[in-house]
């Protein structure tokens, strides 16, 4: 483990100071004081090493999102999570770009999956509170994609050119789109969706139903959440 950690730390330092291109097997070997075959034996290939660097670096970020006690208002937690995400990206641009800058459909890194799981937990709390007007999956995708886009945009700007309000505008636009003002306070046309999303989040607590019944109810609720409560057209 000492050798593995030394290699990961050396690669992380090269990434932070020189970007992804600086993380070559030769450079990492020299910085960590090991032979190249050791890197391949421990990580498989360069991508395996980069995934290890990403996972090690993202752990600090995820800890900062989960170390606090949950806010009584889950939407406040969503705001805090957004700000932490953007702040982390600006503080660690090379690491952020490594984790979130190159999507790999169907082959997400462990760091991406961990980050997605934390976001899903926050979104689930919003749904359980009756504050979500779209499906959990749609809400998580919108928050993640918009937050990632804003962060990468800000990273690409010179520090003196960054508009500090840009992230706040994007954050509030997304929150307005996916949440309601409060439990039971939905706009016209969104009531069935918000109700379905809330009940969907609370399904595990409906122990009076069998697994099969909960599965069927889940299918119906998902259909309402995605379809907006509209009746299907007759063929």
From TrEMBL:
Residue ranges for the DNA-binding region feature of this UniProt entry: 24-43
GO molecular function: DNA-binding transcription factor activity; transcription cis-regulatory region binding
Pfam name, any one: TetR_N
Limits of the HTH tetR-type domain: 1-61
Residues of the signal peptide: none
Keyword Transcription in record: yes
Keyword set, alphabetical order: DNA-binding, Transcription, Transcription regulation
Database matches in PANTHER family: HTH-TYPE TRANSCRIPTIONAL REGULATOR BETI, HTH-TYPE TRANSCRIPTIONAL REGULATOR RUTR
Protein name: TetR family transcriptional regulator
